[in-house]
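ok so for the tutorial part 2 we go from a plain amino acid sequence to predicted structure tokens. step 1 is just haveing the sequence, like this:
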Amino acid sequence: MEATGVLPFVRGVDLSGNDFKGGYFPENVKAMTSLRWLKLNRTGLCYLPEELAALQKLEHLSVSHNNLTTLHGELSSLPSLRAIVARANSLKNSGVPDDIFKLDDLSVLDLSHNQLTECPRELENAKNMLVLNLGHNRQLPAMTALQTLHLRNTQRTQSNLPTSLEGLSNLADVDLSCNDLTRVPECLYTLPSLRRLNLSSNQITELSLCIDQWVHVETLNLSRNQLTSLPSAICKLTKLKKLYLNSNKLDFDGLPSGIGKLASLEEFMAANNNLELVPESLCRCPKLRKLVLNKNRLVTLPEAIHFLTEIEVLDVRENPNLVMPPKPADRAAEWYNIDFSLQNQLRLAGASPATVAAAAAGSGPKDPLARKMRLRRRKDSAHDDQAKQVLKGMSDVAQEKNKKQEESVDTRAPGGKVRRWDQGLEKPRLDYSEFFTEDVGQLPGLTIWQIENFVPVLVEEAFHGKFYEADCYIVLKTFLDDSGSLNWEIYYWIGGEATLDKKACSAIHAVNLRNYLGAECRTVREEMGDESEEFLQVFDNDISYIEGGTASGFYTVEDTHYVTRMYRVYGKKNIKLEPVPLKGASLDPRFVFLLDRGLDIYVWRGAQATLSSTTKARLFAEKINKNERKGKAEITLLVQGQEPPEFWEVLGGEPSEIKKHVPDDFWPPQPKLYKVGLGLGYLELPQINYKLSVEHKKRPKVELMPGMRLLQSLLDTRCVYILDCWSDVFIWLGRKSPRLVRAAALKLGQELCAMLHRPRHAAVSRSLEGTEAQVFKAKFKNWDDVLTVDYTRNAEAVLQGPGLSGKVKRDAEKKDQMKADLTALFLPRQPPMALAEAEQLMEEWNEDLDGMEGFVLEGKKFARLPEEEFGHFYTQDCYVFLCRYWVPVEYEEEEKKDEEEEKTEGKGEAAAAEVEEKQPEEDFQCIVYFWQGREASNMGWLTFTFSLQKKFESLFPGKLEVVRMTQQQENPKFLSHFKRKFIIHRGKRKVAQGALQPSLYQIRTNGSALCTRCIQINTDSSFLNSEFCFILKVPFESEDNQGIVYAWVGRASDPDEAKLAEDILNTMFDASYSKQVINEGEEPENFFWVGIGAQKPYDDDAEYMKHTRLFRCSNEKGYFAVTEKCSDFCQDDLADDDIMLLDNGQEVYMWVGTQTSQVEIKLSLKACQVYIQHMRSKEHERPRRLRLVRKGNEQHAFTRCFHAWSTFRKALA
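step 2 — the prediction. this is what the tokens look like for a chain of 1213 residues:
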């Protein structure tokens, strides 16, 4: 390949990630004599290449993560060298040359993560050294006790900071202010004791999701940066006391709605930003003392600002449009500006207008006398406010009238003449953002566009005044008139050799620019060689003409030339294409290959290739035909052994045998994305680290960032990129990229392809934005031609005006409106499942069960559980059940039958029998259920994960699922395997079996027969209930008779439940006990009442079971929301940090945990009142009363709604 001549102009290049092992290094680097920076990270270098000696202007060299054992070589001969980064190599003290410390300009040296045992010699000669990193070496002295690190105004950047500070476990105060950081350094996330962090006066544009690792940070200073938004993860900094965000670019959408979770926040400063409003949740920070919001664009503040009782400083100066919210005069303000009226909450929940109207009308009888008294009090208290409102209304009317008069005067010209008819027309709103940026014409100066391919492309300032003879230009001059207002002059310049399309487009886009700016000036036509004096003065009479220009935008009719290429198809979910040599030996029977001849596309399927790969390759070929060949190509599907002669002719002949030659672990090199940079006389080629450029859905670890595929969003329409895929080099040209950058990129792509070791079939291709080839798109994640549809939009949103943006606009409106979500309170109660339906579901789940093995934790290991103990659980034990389920194989069934018939045809009975043996059997899946009693410790789970789970995973790779459950929160499918015989005993398994105390069990069904349990409760007759069945076990001390077991059947109990109690009695309890079924009122005095501890009054009905509902109230989502628990709830569902609402049909209990905030208590109280009001209109015959219950003080009417109520369990370690 001929030299392109661009290498001497390259100022920087990033060759990281290439393979330079074995002494191979591109010689072309010697031609980059103007190189200032060079990155050779992760290239496998064992020694420094000799070519570095020619780079006399090199200032920054990075050779990290290689196999270097020495730095001896050419470094000391590079006089301009300022920074050497050689971290993560195998350097020893003998490998660090002494003469590098004599370099006059050396200021940064990173030798961390090597094998140094002492500080390098001659280090004292480095007079200008600013940064020296010797961390993570063998026996170097460390500063592990360091508590304060201040590096203010020390020219810190991402490149001269250590990547990890893990060893500084005591570091609590870090100051990196007044530096040049563009993001928060990753090393700060690993500091476990960080309390104070100052990152002010930097260039930080965004915060990572990893900030939630700063769990101990109390002061965070991010002032004077470029932040536009804060991540929601900042709401997890529960110990944060001071947050400074002054002089950024934050607006209302940039503040997370859940900022009210910062319960310890005392100072919040966000002066000099773009805030129009602040989230209402900010006013729910109970300790907020200082709130500084001056120099913003505030319109108003939330009314909840009046509830900040601890506020000392409220600074809202220099907000000219600010109107302070009125201080509420009644108790309604206590509820944080949320309308808790029943009709409003029904409307928000989506109820019909009739229902809302009925709720408003049916709120109860009205007392006319009370209404008069209420109106009189309101009139007396608000008399002054009404007077002010009247005065304000009169002034508003007067101002509106004056404004209309002024407008009517303006419609007449100065001489009293009526304005022309066209001056009163309103210009249509057109979108020119595709051609012109938002800041065009907003600053005095000169802006020039060149017409290229029908579109105006911005011309760099260095080329102003230089016009190509075959091009057309648009010139915009922006200046301030005498009144200080912006004014414009617009010219369009026509070259002497310009084509018709360029002339027309320059005139059209000049008018578009005038409309975009709203300018009143005319667009002036200027022709080459006949320019006006005004136009020449714009360039100080210094313009020049250059021969040539860009090609015409019109299509020329010519035969398209297609390059023949062959690709190997691999990948499962998203296929990828790897170019291979154009010969028969490249074929492999395990893969699908795609041969592209332009208007003939062959999809070749190997004998062992999968059907899904063939289908996806065919679909890929269809996309190529549709998008690149205009549907003219013919696609042919070939199977190994049935190829036509023309196929082998393209590949140079048919091979004697198609062998397996692709390694099983083959994976192509990671693509490298370069961004071409062009300056005044230099070129740069930095790599884009797209692993860090893309926001991760799940927060990654700082030490190991996961590999991610490229995203289309990384490509900027104003730039040019080179995508290096080893066997393919793509040059992507943005539509708004400058012409000179495009020309330089084409030459750099050729040089890049030639200088690195590549296969012979490697090719360089050019892609213009909007016309990319399918092979190029396949390199990116989720880049296809499918039209994106917003499925969350409803019919109302779709019918909005064309100027609205659907979901985006609705989300913005909801952010203002959504302060409470009480929808769950208005939904009907979940109906109980019928017994027949539950039994059918139970039968289906048990039909799929192929086998079940049980294990129980004994000591520190799991022992096999005897089958006779299946269904018996103890509250202090942990159990593991391995269930194997049969899964029918249905996919590809028909195709396999056809294939087997073809193979067996004509081969006799032996071949048919062999094929039958190869028929796939049914598949299976294994689920491991881990059950933990409510009194058991977490050691059982840890023991399982490190012992039994590992063993199961090795036995059933890829077919294992682990489900962790706690007592009374079991999976319904798991419960179905015990067929309603699920008994929970108190204590530990072997200890409890020897106890001689009587024990009482209650059988109860919650919402469905699947959720039936027999749980041991306190042995007390006051817990009996006539609508349930109980089992009383009374042991004897006699050796002949171990005791007696009673099944007590309540007079109002369900017959099916009574039969179940008798069944449990006979099958689940020890045969050595006497067994007796007794009905309520027929209890024997001698054993039953003595064993249960005397006869006491008990409930004779369980009517509450038909009405019981449990709701959870929380503001963890950033706003107050109510959600309902399922009907199978238990005591452990009562969350200690939330409010729970329990409705038993007569009372609504508001249960308050010990860690609940005052805000949640107040809002939950209003939610209770709304719910009671709603139920009064629905069930007027059952009026509810509101009762407050605190944790630990629950009444019997509350506890009986929970099966087997006991003491609250302690937090597990």
